[in-house]
Write a structure and sequence with these properties.
InterPro entries: YpzH (IPR054055). The protein is α+β, with helices and mostly antiparallel strands. The chain is 25% helix and 37% strand. The longest helix is centred in the middle third of the chain and has 15 residues.
């Protein structure tokens, strides 16, 4: 079974689009807080894509 991207957390409004829910943040602290909370709620893992973007993935 393939992995699934559950959410994107980013500070970069210009470069992010897609089918997963996107959470826009003002700074790195807010980005980390949202990622930590969503990781627990969605039962996924956070992965850093760039310094300004994280994804939450459920590995199957």
């Amino acid at each position: 079974m393939p992995s699934e991207i559950l959410a994107v957390i980013t500070m970069d409004r210009e470069r992010i689009a897609g089918g997963a829910p996107i959470f826009f943040c003002a700074d790195h602290q807010e980005m980390q807080q949202i990622a930590f909370t969503l990781e627990k709620i969605l039962d996924g893992m956070v992965h850093e894509v760039t310094a300004d973007s994280l994804i939450i993935v459920r590995h199957k």
